[in-house]
Write a structure and sequence with these properties.
3-demethoxyubiquinol 3-hydroxylase activity; 8-stranded mixed beta sheet; FAD-bd; flavoprotein; alpha/beta; Glutaredoxin; FAD/NAD(P)-binding domain; FAD; 714 residues; FAD binding; 23% strand; single chain
């Protein structure tokens, strides 16, 4: 069975608009069967099948649809869950959502007011003593200094609703088994569809794709639908069936903690907290119960309570709606009359990354939680997944249109897997920081885990489970006396010492953190679809940067290769518009487009011309941005017309430095204005050089784009 890693004749079938068949001849590949398949028998032939219709799968579907790539999504559930799950959307993900046809703006308008969720609160009950609080928003978040948009607090199911509306706008439909008939639906019928109630049950690698089996319930009878695709994208979550079928193992720490997630509503409680002690997370410690309350929407009284449990002594089945209501009342400190438990789910906390992201001869790709499972501390899970999709989509588009070589898929793994490993470590550190608070109060979680292990190993084979449960809960009850009013008091020497330590942890920023701007915006790809800088120097600087970011958390803009393009407000010249926009908006959200940023210098214009010539040769979409100093105008800015002729795909913009910074674009990027910066469609820098470093411009630029596209260099 031939591997496609080293080339092969990929040909596009029904992948969208604007396909140019000459591209195949330019790559000099023999025409084999369609990427959408040909050996799948009577199965529908599709360019892409995505498994999983969570936020990551839907985001990936939207990006591909915008790029003209048709795909089919398989979702095993018959309905989208209303359990809130993830809720924090970081800077980088919100930047990506700005180009989802206004999705970021929709989120900002629909989310709760920021003053209702900017704090984490530590207390003995929701109506009891406040032990401390942390405000996680800074003035620069509102001033939008480092990003054109701020973070958001928005429940996952609400995000899914908005994504479905965006997908509807680009021609996607949600279908159920009875709407598709039997198992022989044709490919055109399945394109740009979300097939609800379809679970990926088998995969088989063929000579030119993957034959996917999707089981579904048709009128009470289980059937299997076969689909043949060129690419199978597994976005089916932490318990990924695609990953399991592909035999890809996870590496890391498992079962860090088991918890019960209780989704409930209470407008009375929401109204009380909104007026008395608003916050996003409430860490509650008292002699009767311990838990973490996530306030998803105080205005509507929507909450999720997270409670640890310890099987087999405590089982998920023990947590009935009535038991959960009783725990809620203990943590609230009074009994709201309108508590309604909507859903109860068990889950286990892991810190794992898939050993590889790509399998089955580059035909199968893992995305999101299917590729990595983090502790929720810091909200890295969904955010990392959406950014996976953003990294992958433009590469798939160029591949499916015959522009990039199939091995470009490997750059997705080489870029995104190190980010996941780093975020796993950071999530673990943040989780340990969260655990430092109960430990300081005398409720060390490691002791609870040790007690649980002793009971399992020492008593498990001697006494029945019910008696084990009594012993375990009795010991835990004794342990919770450490947070009684008598001990946890300024009048008690031990309590006073513990409270002082708690305040120090909070004041020094050593507790659970919400925002990580250095990591959210400052991560950098070291190898992949880019032309790396000097290896030894880069590695040393990167290690230094990693350590400094962990300690300070400050984002430092950089134009180093692999970095996200720094944000700066600019104003277009030669236009009647008075509007301003971010440098990130130079990249189109509707097509994979490269941007070349230069200063208005003769040598830079010449190199930009050569770059436009080569992008035409490669049939890539590209444009030049000429960055003028603040105050430029008049006749001088008209020089770009003649300097870049005959090309007209350029824009002249004027810097708008902030009064508090007053640095030019090139100073913010920490490079000279003789630099030329090549930016990829995902807003990461693919190459940077200075004009006096390039001798044979056309040859060098051709080499650069060949390397980015994983094409053999001629």
């Amino acid at each position: 069975m031939p591997s496609i890693a080293g080339g092969g004749g990929w040909r596009l079938l029904s992948a969208g608009r604007g396909v140019t068949w000459l591209r195949l001849r330019r790559l000099q590949r023999p025409p084999l069967s369609s990427l959408a398949g040909g050996s799948g028998g009577d199965a529908p032939h599709l360019p892409v099948v995505i498994v999983g219709a969570g936020p990551v799968g839907l985001a990936l579907s939207f990006l591909l649809a915008k790029f003209g790539i048709k795909c089919t999504v398989l979702e095993r559930s018959m309905e989208f869950t209303r359990h809130p799950r993830a809720h924090f959307i970081n800077n980088r993900t919100m930047e990506i959502f700005r180009k989802f046809d206004g999705l970021a703006g929709d989120i900002e308008r629909a989310q709760p007011p920021v003053d209702l969720w900017r704090k984490f609160v530590y207390c003995t009950s929701l109506s009891g003593t406040i032990l401390g609080s942390v405000d996680h928003m800074k003035q620069e978040d509102f001033d939008k200094v480092i990003s054109p948009i701020s973070v958001a607090h928005f429940s996952q199911y609400k995000l899914v609703d908005l994504l479905l509306k965006k997908l509807d706008g680009v021609g996607f439909q949600t279908c159920f088994p009875d709407e598709l008939g039997g198992s022989s639906a044709q490919d055109l019928l399945l394109e740009n569809k979300i097939l609800m109630g379809h679970e990926c049950s088998s995969i088989e690698l063929t000579d030119d794709g993957i034959l996917v089996g999707a089981s579904f319930n048709n009128g009470g009878r289980m059937q299997e639908r076969k689909l043949h695709c060129g690419l199978l994208l597994g976005a089916d979550g932490a318990r990924s069936k695609v990953r399991e079928l592909a035999g890809i193992p996870m590496k890391g720490e498992r079962d860090l903690q088991k918890l019960v997630s209780v989704h409930f509503v209470s407008r009375d409680l929401g109204k009380y907290l909104s007026s008395e002690r608003p916050g996003m997370l409430f860490f509650i410690f008292n002699p009767d119960a311990i838990g973490v309350l996530v306030a998803h929407d105080l205005e509507h009284g929507e909450f999720v309570l997270q409670v640890p449990f310890y099987p087999p002594q405590q089982m998920f089945e023990d947590f009935s709606a009535k038991v959960c209501e009783q725990i809620i009342v203990k943590l609230v400190g009074w009994e709201p009359a309108d508590i309604q438990v909507l859903d109860i789910k068990p889950w286990a906390m892991h810190a794992e990354v898939a050993e590889k992201y790509v399998g089955c001869d580059n035909r199968l790709i893992l995305v999101g939680d299917a590729a990595h499972r983090f502790p929720p501390a810091g909200g890295f899970g969904m955010n990392t997944g959406v950014q996976d999709a953003h990294n992958l989509a433009w590469k798939l588009c160029l591949l499916l249109n015959g522009i990039a070589n199939p091995s470009i898929i490997q750059t997705y793994e080489s870029e995104r897997r190190p980010v996941a490993i780093f975020n796993t470590e950071l999530s673990l550190e943040n989780f340990k920081a969260a655990m430092s608070i109960p430990a300081t109060l005398g409720l060390d979680p490691t002791i609870a885990n040790s007690v649980h292990r002793v009971i399992n190993s020492g008593l498990g084979s001697i006494i029945p489970r019910n008696l084990q449960k009594v012993v375990l809960e009795g010991l835990f009850s004794i342990g919770r006396t450490q947070v009684s009013d008598y001990i946890l008091s300024e009048n008690n020497p031990l309590g006073s010492l513990r409270l002082a330590r708690l305040r120090n942890i909070l004041d020094e920023g050593k507790s659970l953190q919400l925002q990580f701007p250095a990591e959210d915006l400052g991560f950098r790809y070291e190898k992949g679809a880019l032309v790396a800088e000097d290896c030894a120097k880069t590695t040393h600087q990167t290690e230094e940067l990693k350590h400094s970011k962990r300690s300070s958390g400050e984002y430092i803009p950089s134009a180093k290769v692999g970095s996200r393009l720094p944000h700066m407000l600019v104003r277009p010249l030669h236009t009647s518009s008075e509007g301003v926009f971010s440098t990130l908006d130079l990249l189109s959200g509707d097509k994979p487009e490269f941007v070349i940023i230069i200063a208005p210098l003769k040598e830079s214009y010449k190199l930009a011309q050569d770059m436009l010539r080569i992008t035409d040769e490669f049939e890539l979409s590209a444009k030049v941005c000429v960055m003028w100093p603040q105050g430029s105008g008049g006749e001088e800015v008209k020089g770009s017309i003649s300097e870049l002729a005959p090309w007209t795909n350029y824009v002249d913009v004027e810097e708008i430095p902030r009064a508090t910074v007053n640095s030019s674009w090139w100073e913010i990027c920490q490079v000279s204005n003789r630099s030329v910066i090549l930016v990829r469609p995902d807003e990461h820098i693919a190459w940077r050089t200075e004009t006096d470093m390039v001798r044979d411009a056309c040859s060098e630029v051709r080499r650069v784009f060949s390397q980015i596209l994983s094409r053999p260099q001629v």
